[in-house]
Amino acid sequence: MARIPRVQFPGAIYHVMNRGNLRDRIFGTPEAAAAFVDCLWEACKQTKWKVHAYCVMRNHYHLAIETPEGNLVEGVHWLQSAFSNRFNRFRKQSGRAFQGRYKAILIEPGIHLLHLTCYLHLNPVLENLVPIEQLADFRWSSYRAYRRRDKAGRPRALTPQPWLSELGGARDDPEGWQAYHSYLERLVNDPKLRDAAGFDRIGRGWLFGSKAFRRQRRLDLQEQNVTKDWGGAELAEVARTKWEAALHSGARQLGRNLESAQLEPKSADWKVALAAWMRSHTTVSNRWLSERLHMGAPDGVSRYCSECKAGKRSAAQALMASLDESL
């Protein structure tokens, strides 16, 4: 059976999920779960994603994400690749970390998005990892971040509105989160209410929403079929165009000419700074950077950028900081 292509458009919302390879307990340690969440926030910085909810379980993850720039495929590829590389380095092994193609189910905004966030946040409870009374203590879920009183400590990409307002106009304040928690308690204690919310359908198929939403998305899919826009070569070309524009912009800010890059050392401070800045703000690959900036092997680019961010290349780090200030 042919795979359904990813339907992508600006502002699309998805339920993204994947499991560890061979159902391995890929997030079985706090360090692994923390590394994945860190990668998620890095991906959001690069793709401008909004995260409505997330939950990291022992052998799989769930995300409810919104893509303002319609870049699901590009972003998930970076997220999973970045985590897999770090995961393998930590375990001193090679091979894929995830079992295969991730699922990405289109979600209708509004009540259906609310039900998805409830489904994600209740995963640890329904899997008997924590009781509902201690859900805010579960570390690897957006629910814990939302319930923090200090909003300044909340990741910028986390977005509780407008789905929270589906609960009688609830707001992002203590009263609103208490109303949300009460709704979660009702869902836990009432299987019929979970059925009405579609818990048995949220992880199936390729879309979750009303009849009108499903009809419109099927039309989108038919249009993709006609135009052959399957999210492959076309999306890759869009990504490369973005990378090229960012590269030229950064080089101008540093007063450098890209044409002379091949004449300078592969680890020149300005090259390292520009590469590290690109990696922080786009989904650019090390191979592309190594070719465009003449920096040698892709692994070398990764090492130089890591050293720059860690402060081991102070001159490059200062140049990177100047690029951040120019944004």
Q: How does the SSE layout of this entry go?
A:
Blueprint: E1 12-19, H1 30-47, E2 50-56, E3 60-67, H2 72-91, E4 103-107, H3 111-121, H4 123-126, H5 142-146, H6 174-189, H7 191-196, E5 207-208, H8 211-227, H9 233-254, H10 269-281, H11 286-293, H12 298-309, H13 314-325
Helix pairs in contact: 1-2, 9-10, 10-12, 10-13, 11-12
Please give a structural write-up:
With 327 residues, the chain is of the alpha+beta class. It has 2 domains: 12-227, Transposase IS200-like (Alpha-Beta Plaits), CATH 3.30.70; 233-325. Helix content is 50%, strand content 9%. The chain contains 13 helices and 5 strands. The chain has helices at 30-47, 72-91, 111-121, 123-126, 142-146, 174-189, 191-196, 211-227, 233-254, 269-281, 286-293, 298-309, 314-325, and strands at 12-19, 50-56, 60-67, 103-107, 207-208. Strands 2-3-1-4-5 form a 5-stranded mixed sheet, with helices on both faces. Helix 10 packs across helix 12 (298-309). The longest helix has 22 residues, at 233-254. The N and C termini lie far apart (46 Å).
